[in-house]
Amino acid sequence: MTLKSSPCQDKCNWGPTDEVYEDKPLFACGSCGSQWVRTESWTPKQLDGSVPPGVKEEVIIARPWAAFSFGND
Fold first, then answer.
1. How does pLDDT run across 24-36, given as a tens digit for each residue?
2. How far apart (Å, rounded) are the C-alpha atoms in residues 62 and 37?
3. Of 22, 38, 46, 63, which residue has the fewest beta carbons closer than 10 angstroms?
4. Rounded Cα distance, 38 and 21, in Å
5. What pTM, to 2 d.p., does this model score?
6. DSSP character for 28?
7. Which residues fall within 8 angstroms of residue 36, CB to CB, at 6 or more apart?
């Protein structure tokens, strides 16, 4: 399986799926259908620019130093 990457629809709504990809939780955009796991070099964001909570935890697992970029929110 390859992660799906689709053109952005400017309606970003990322959330967890019930699937795993290479033993990692799989997230998908509810608008365009793109998929993401923590080993990707980019971080998905919601339409308002926020990083979804489940994604934050996954990013920190993969890149612990990234916790500083999320602040205290």
1. 999 999 999 999 9
2. 10
3. 22
4. 10
5. 0.88
6. E
7. 3, 14, 26, 27, 28, 42, 44, 55
Host H or E run for residue 36? strand 35-36
Mean pLDDT rounded to a whole number for the chain:
92
Query: Could you state, in order of their start, the residue ranges of all structural domains in the chain?
Result: 14-70
The pair of structure tokens assigned to 34 is: 């793109």
Query: Distance (Å, rounded) from C-alpha 51 to C-alpha 34?
Result: 15
Does the pLDDT value for residue 49 go beyond 70? yes
Name the one residue in this structure whose structure tokens are 């799989």. 26
DSSP 1-27: ---------S---EEEEEEEETTEEEE
Q: Which residue has the tokens 């990322």?
A: 14
Could you give the CA distance from residue 48 to residue 73 in angstroms, rounded to a whole number?
15
> Is residue 61 a contact partner of residue 37, using CB atoms and an 8 Å limit?
no
